[in-house]
Fold this sequence. Notes:
Layout (H helix, E strand, L loop, with lengths): L2 H19 L1 H4 L1 E10 L19 E2 L11 E10 L1 H14 L22 E4 L17 E7 L5 E6 L11 H14 L29 E9 L4 E9 L9 H17 L2
Parallel strand pairs: 4-8
Antiparallel strand pairs: 1-3, 2-3, 5-6, 7-8
The chain binds flavin-adenine dinucleotide.
Flavin-adenine dinucleotide binds next to strand 6.
Amino acid sequence: xxxxxxxxxxxxxxxxxxxxxxxxxxxxxxxxxxxxxxxxxxxxxxxxxxxxxxxxxxxxxxxxxxxxxxxxxxxxxxxxxxxxxxxxxxxxxxxxxxxxxxxxxxxxxxxxxxxxxxxxxxxxxxxxxxxxxxxxxxxxxxxxxxxxxxxxxxxxxxxxxxxxxxxxxxxxxxxxxxxxxxxxxxxxxxxxxxxxxxxxxxxxxxxxxxxxxxxxxxxxxxxxxxxxxxxxxxxxxxxxxxxxxxxxxxxxxxxxxxx
Length: 259
Ligand SMILES: Cc1cc2nc3c(=O)[nH]c(=O)nc-3n(C[C@H](O)[C@H](O)[C@H](O)COP(=O)(O)OP(=O)(O)OC[C@H]3O[C@@H](n4cnc5c(N)ncnc54)[C@H](O)[C@@H]3O)c2cc1C
């Protein structure tokens, strides 16, 4: 199994546990996930997570929506990022962590005399720290959230960093989602009730995820600093998070032990 799948495996198990034990606090809930193919895929082989995700199976013909030739289903989780990120920040502060807002043009700018370790999780803005990012087209998804909300998406556009709402793209997303999931529209309604529009950027990176560490000698304070890198998670940063973070910690501990 490749490293990214290992990250996802560890994370799935952890998120599943959180959903089962702390749903309200974390904003994570278990869901039935469905993936559809408009055309029957040639030489389909089951994904690596077939043995990980609970109740993985191929959909029966009568379960497929119109215009869909093949599909799979399995148990997954849905995360409400607002609730979940608050939960994470709360844990961080309870453990003694503090936060500070600053805009950096180089990693060196966060190095002070007392700094021994820096962890670079610069995600979507890693390009501003001299890293290159790369985005790729259209994808359609319907994700149930808590509080009876459903997220509809999406787009996948290379090098588009605009966070302005594109209402034409939004109308096309709604059309595509209704085509695969007509039950979204209550029988007594002609249109969906839209609670809000959101735009997000997936922090992709040429070459894929970077989870590694390096020693640098800071000119500012003439000592060696261990820099951990954990970014470029693209459209999968939540689902790989615990696995990637634990891997980085292992790598960094190994480098510190070798000193
Ligand atoms: C529409 C959409 C749907 C998605 N769906 C999923 C999904 O189903 N499953 C999934 O796992 N993931 C999904 N993702 C991807 C997920 O949101 C990202 O992978 C994840 O947020 C990446 O987290 P990160 O912390 O690595 O990076 P980011 O969220 O980009 O965070 C990086 C942080 O570093 C800060 N920063 C960067 N550079 C600087 C600088 N120079 N100075 C100061 N601060 C800086 C930024 O301000 C930011 O706060 C989706 C994303 C989008 C947009």
